[in-house]
Amino acid sequence: MAPEGDAHLRTRSAIDWTLNRTLDLAQYTPWTEASFPAPGWFDGPRPDNFVSRGPGIVDGMICARPQAADIALVIEVSSSTRRKDEARAKLYARLAIPEYWLIDLEGASVVVHRSPGHADPRGYHYASVFALGRNENLTSTAVRDLTFSTSFLLQLAA
What pLDDT score does 13 carry? Predict the structure, then answer.
């Protein structure tokens, strides 16, 4: 696997930094470059960032790795991997991940996927998919009190 580009790394790191400072860590746990078990996936998906329900540490004890059913939001940062990241939407919809954000650095947009699990002859998909450009606010419907400025998410976009 080729090393990720500078814009990809910095965007993923900025999202992680922000999630760790804005989430209610008693209710949610932010993860970066981690995998979670998923049926039909040998190693499990390894998104750039994701948020699971529940705390990561309770009474000084580290909690178990989240399962697919625990994931509230997946965020993929895409520079040269847009096609692969778009294809993952079907996997995340099949796993019933409530919300999936694809940050497209080359296209300078954030593609938001909501309402998963709808199957048709093409497979699983999200019922709601829309794109946002710069200068908009993106509020999660799956993670309480989580809002990002799209300008922040896209500041390293082409």
Answer: 94
- 109 Cβ contact partners less than 8 Å away, ≥ 6 residues apart: 131, 132, 133, 154
Name the β-bridge partners of 32: 49
Residue 103 bridge partners (DSSP): 77, 110
Within 10 angstroms of residue 43's Cβ, the number of other Cβ atoms is 8
In the block, residue with structure tokens 């954000």 = 101
**Rama region for 117: left / alpha / beta (φ>0; ψ in -120 to 50; rest):** left
**C-alpha 149, offset from chain centre:** 15
CA atoms within a 13 Å half-sphere pointing along the CA-CB vector of 140: 21
DSSP state of 114: E
Expressed in angstroms, the distance from the first to the final Cα of the chain is: 23
**Which tens digits make up the pLDDT trace of 19-74?**
999 999 999 999 998 999 888 777 788 999 999 999 887 777 888 889 999 999 99
Name the residue with tokens 């896209």.
Answer: 154
pTM of this structure: 0.92
Distance CA 158, CA 146 (A): 25
Quick one: which H or E segment has residue 72?
strand 71-78
3-class secondary structure, 16: helix
